[in-house]
Automatic annotation (TrEMBL):
Any GO molecular function: oxidoreductase activity
Keyword Chaperone: no
Record's keyword annotation contains ATP-binding: no
Lineage top rank: taxon: Bacteria
Protein's organism: Bradyrhizobium elkanii
Entry EC no(s): 1.-.-.-
Name under which the protein is recorded: N-ethylmaleimide reductase
């Protein structure tokens, strides 16, 4: 592709007064199941993320804020000091290679595989609405996956405790040296479950109206922002997406309440939108106008389409996922027009270095 078409992707940007990026290319969070069984990041993970530090910004894979919030046995956590120490090796690797990295923090709610726990603990959700047992079959090559259990509905008072877990993870992220955190409020996980209308059947202050369904996300945001300020925080949203059997009515109203609430709290690092049909989404354009500050777009567009959105002011950052898996030097390849390598899907979740840190840079081929 002509380099002139995608020039905007390589413009530097200051996300905050203390966080400058050398380009607009963001490596999206992607689960790879390479942590220890207790969720502690490994030296292999430090090598993997360090290899991809050419990105303007790296968003880590989904990282749980509690044991009950975990989904996979070898998925990472951020709720113990050992987790933070492990993540510090990852952060140091990225920083030593000139990159910037934020921690994506999450609680999966009812989408939990708890078979690895020493004693059975039911998953939690806004309401006791399980995921269809057969839906687990769509997950390929992730080890130790079991059917979903029926979740326990959170008590009203427990919601504040969940928010406190997110704040604790943020304090640990600060200890590890992260450049910020991203709230994982999408993909059918706990915060998204509160935003939904099929899983959230509550009649208390967290259910019923669009404003109430957005309340939990805002309380999580407030708890995190209290640690280092709102500009240390980003949030990922997938309005209308049905992943993990989520259904949403009043989507525009619910996300409008959430975005208005965030805008009233000051300037955040960025708002991350994923839309499967981003190019044709009127909802994205409606919600985008409610955002104060930077917008990261993610929606399987071509490189040229992302560049056009940035050049036209519709977005500030462009997210790339699997392309970064197989191409650790993706920014350089795009700039120079070097063909991209293909992902080995058989090794996405299998553990070990193969298909993780073994993809060569173009200069090594």
């Amino acid at each position: 592709m002509p380099a002139s078409v995608i020039t905007s992707l390589f413009d530097p940007i200051d996300l905050t007064t203390t966080l400058a990026l050398r380009n607009r290319l963001v490596m999206l969070g992607m689960t790879r199941t390479r942590a220890e069984n207790d969720g502690t990041p490994t030296e292999l993970m430090a090598e993997y993320y360090g290899q991809r530090a050419d990105a303007g910004l790296i968003i880590t894979e989904s990282t749980s804020v509690s044991t009950v919030g975990r989904s996979f046995l070898t998925g990472p956590g951020m709720y113990t000091t050992e987790h933070a120490r492990g993540w510090k090796t990852v952060v140091d690797s990225v920083h030593s290679n000139g990159g910037r990295i934020v921690l994506q923090i999450n609680h999966v709610g009812r989408a939990n595989n708890l078979a690895f726990l020493p004693r059975p603990i039911p998953p939690v959700a806004p309401s006791a609405v399980p995921i269809n047992q057969s839906s687990r079959q769509i997950v390929i090559n992730i080890p130790r996956v079991t059917p979903y259990g029926e979740p326990r509905a959170l008590d009203t008072e427990e919601v504040a405790l969940i928010a406190a877990e997110f704040a604790h993870a943020t304090r640990l992220a600060t200890m590890a040296g992260f450049d910020g955190v991203e709230i994982h409020a999408d993909s059918g996980y706990l915060i998204h479950q509160f935003l939904s209308t099929n899983v959230n059947r509550r009649s208390d202050r967290y259910g019923g109206s669009a404003e109430n369904r957005a309340r939990m996300a805002l309380e999580v945001f407030d708890a995190i922002a209290a640690v280092n300020g709102p500009d240390y925080v980003a949030i990922k949203l997938t309005p209308g997406w049905t992943n993990n059997e989520i259904e949403e009515e009043q989507t525009e109203e619910t996300y409008g309440c959430l975005l208005d609430g965030i805008a009233a709290r000051g300037s955040i690092m960025f708002t991350h939108f994923y839309f499967p049909n981003l190019a044709d989404s009127a909802l994205f354009r409606t919600l985008r106008h409610k955002v104060k500050g930077n917008v990261l777009v993610d929606g399987s567009l071509t490189t040229e389409q992302y560049a056009i959105m940035i050049a036209g002011g519709e977005a500030d950052l462009a997210g790339f996922g699997r392309a970064f898996i197989a191409n650790p030097d993706l920014p350089g390849r795009l700039r120079e027009g070097v063909p991209l390598a293909d992902v080995d899907y058989a090794t996405l979740y299998t553990g070990g270095a193969r298909g993780y840190t073994t993809y060569p840079r173009a200069s090594q081929r």
